[in-house]
Amino acid sequence: MAAAAAPPSMVVALLFFLYITTNRPPFLVVEATWCVVRSDASDQAMLAGLNYACAGGADCVPIQSSGLCYLPNTIQAHASYAYNSYYQRRGSDPAACYFSGTATIAKTDPSYGSCVYPSSPRNLFAYLH
């Protein structure tokens, strides 16, 4: 038989207890991040990064001609979407946002119109001890 989950009031009481005994909030909220192209990247380097990301498991369907992120049809826009998809699929690991120095991690959502860039979790809680 599976153990019953703690009632919400019990969870709140535990969180309050942790706060008053440690004198600090028990949670850390992690900001959302995206991997995008650096503004000084060359077209040749971005194209190489775009190809690497798409071949390496990024979801590049949205930047195909019928996709929601096809427009604007520029290497910079397509590379940013592919870089971010690659980065998100690797758990937002900063090492997955390099692309030979052509990428940077952003804290501003690059989504526009119907083109939505996936992001890291906005509310990821971790107990601080």
TrEMBL record:
<dbReference type="InterPro" id="IPR044788">
    <property type="entry name" value="X8_dom_prot"/>
</dbReference>
<dbReference type="GO" id="GO:0009506">
    <property type="term" value="C:plasmodesma"/>
</dbReference>
<keyword id="KW-1003">Cell membrane</keyword>
<keyword id="KW-0325">Glycoprotein</keyword>
<keyword id="KW-0732">Signal</keyword>
<dbReference type="GO" id="GO:0098552">
    <property type="term" value="C:side of membrane"/>
</dbReference>
<keyword id="KW-0336">GPI-anchor</keyword>
<feature type="domain" description="X8">
    <location>
        <begin position="33"/>
        <end position="117"/>
    </location>
</feature>
<keyword id="KW-1015">Disulfide bond</keyword>
<dbReference type="GO" id="GO:0005886">
    <property type="term" value="C:plasma membrane"/>
</dbReference>
<dbReference type="Pfam" id="PF07983">
    <property type="entry name" value="X8"/>
</dbReference>
<protein>
    <submittedName>
        <fullName>Carbohydrate-binding X8 domain superfamily protein</fullName>
    </submittedName>
</protein>
<feature type="signal peptide">
    <location>
        <begin position="1"/>
        <end position="23"/>
    </location>
</feature>
<keyword id="KW-0472">Membrane</keyword>
<keyword id="KW-0449">Lipoprotein</keyword>
<dbReference type="InterPro" id="IPR012946">
    <property type="entry name" value="X8"/>
</dbReference>
